Amino acid sequence: MKIKLIGQSTFQIKVKNILPTPSSQHQTKRGSSRDEIVILTDPWFGLHFLRAVPLKTKLEEIENCDLMLVSHNHIDHFDNIAINLAKKFDSIIIGSRKVVRRAEKKGAKKVVCLNYKNSHYRLLPCYDISKMISQESLNLSASNEKEKFYFMQPGKIEKRKFKCLPCVEFLGLKIVALYAEHPFASDAISFLVDVPSGSEPSNRTGEICNSTKKLKDSKKIRIYFSGDTRFSKRLVDELQSVSNEKQIDVAFLQIACSVYFFKKDGLDLLDAVKLTKEIKPKIAIPMHYQVKMKTRNPEEFKNLAENSDTKVVIIPQGEEVIV
Fold first, then answer.
1. Tens digit of pLDDT for each residue in 236-278?
2. How distant is the alpha carbon of residue 242 from its chain centre?
3. Res. 143: pLDDT tops 90
4. Cβ within 8 Å of residue 111, ≥6 positions away
5. What are the beta bridge partners of residue 40?
6. From CA 270, how far away is CA 286, in angstroms rounded?
7. Region for residue 66 given its phi and psi (left: phi exceeds 0; alpha: psi -120 to 50; beta: otherwise)
């Protein structure tokens, strides 16, 4: 798995596509076949005056995107540039309720709303959205343009009010909405992503991608993406339950937040350290520390959080690593 830090909480994640697709080939919008699934997390490209660290990745350097995973609809996690990018690449936007509503209003055709249901994620119904690759649109208009019909599962289209799903699958990837507590985004979620066998590299050292080590077949790799969430016992209990079933291989963790009325709106550095020690991921990747007034040195997180259970990998902005 290759991971590139674009900035703040925006990562480009590439995993090997090992499953057959609904069409004869997995194709980009331009028609070229691909053997990778490309994911963007919390894609934010605009409002440069808010950034403590300028972007090093130019928008035109992003050549494709299959999925956008968006934890909530705040300006440093999702913007109109990202929506236009999704329209350009025919990407599927998977996010919270407000994320999906915004994307729809801006003309995105393929959107899926995820919502946290409960901690028993293994029992949740999971909808396969792989066929959306060959669908022209997720939201199909009826004869009356004011009515909308929504894709719910393969071969089934339903008229509905804005219903969210707890779990989806895409070409073998399982994506589940997990608990998040963010005071100014009541619909905020975090993500658990299980990547199928064959997508995991033979090393997990966070090496820069000029490494010649090749991918090998092995068990699924489990990813946790925190988005913005406060530290709480409920969060710890849920992630420990997840880890007991299968250890988290890679955890993307917020390490800086704001404080309003003496209360934090997410994980600060010490909270991220506590969470790391509670859930014991094999690799922890710090994020969300590059906005003005909310900056931290990720080396502090590494010094405090790294131990025999967890390796901390700090990705330089604009760099791509193998984990």
1. 999 999 998 899 999 999 999 988 888 898 999 999 999 999 9
2. 17
3. no
4. 92, 93, 94, 95, 100, 103, 104, 138, 139
5. 12, 68
6. 12
7. alpha
What DSSP string describes 213-243? Answer: PPB---S-EEEEE--S----HHHHHHHHHHH
CB 222 within 8 A of CB 194: yes
Neighbours of 299 (CB within 10 A): 11
Whole-number Å distance between alpha carbons of 8 and 189: 17
**40: closest CA among 5, 67, 73?**
67
Is residue 198's pLDDT more than 70? no
Largest CA distance in the chain: 61
CATH number reported for the structural domain that contains residue 115 in this entry: 3.60.15.10
Token pair belonging to 265: 């709106």
From first CA to last CA, the distance across the chain in angstroms is: 6
> Which residue has tokens 């990562």?
11
Domain residues for the domain of 102 are 2-322
Residue 125 half-sphere exposure toward CB, CA atoms < 13 A: 6
3-state secondary structure of 270: helix
Q: By percentage, how much of the chain surpasses pLDDT 70?
A: 77
Nearest to 164 by CA among 127, 194, 191: 127
Q: Report how far residue 189's alpha carbon sits from residue 180's, in angstroms, rounded to the nearest whole number.
A: 5
Q: For residues 163 and 268, give the distance between their C-alpha atoms in angstroms, rounded to a whole number.
A: 32
Mean per-residue pLDDT, 142-147: 33
pLDDT at 106: 94
Half-sphere exposure of 275 (CA within 13 A, CB side): 32
Pairwise CA distance, residues 17 & 26, whole Å: 9
Q: What is the mean pLDDT of residues 146-156?
A: 40
* Alpha carbon distance 30, 19 (integer Å): 21
* Number of separate domains in the chain: 1
Structure tokens given for 112: 């899926």
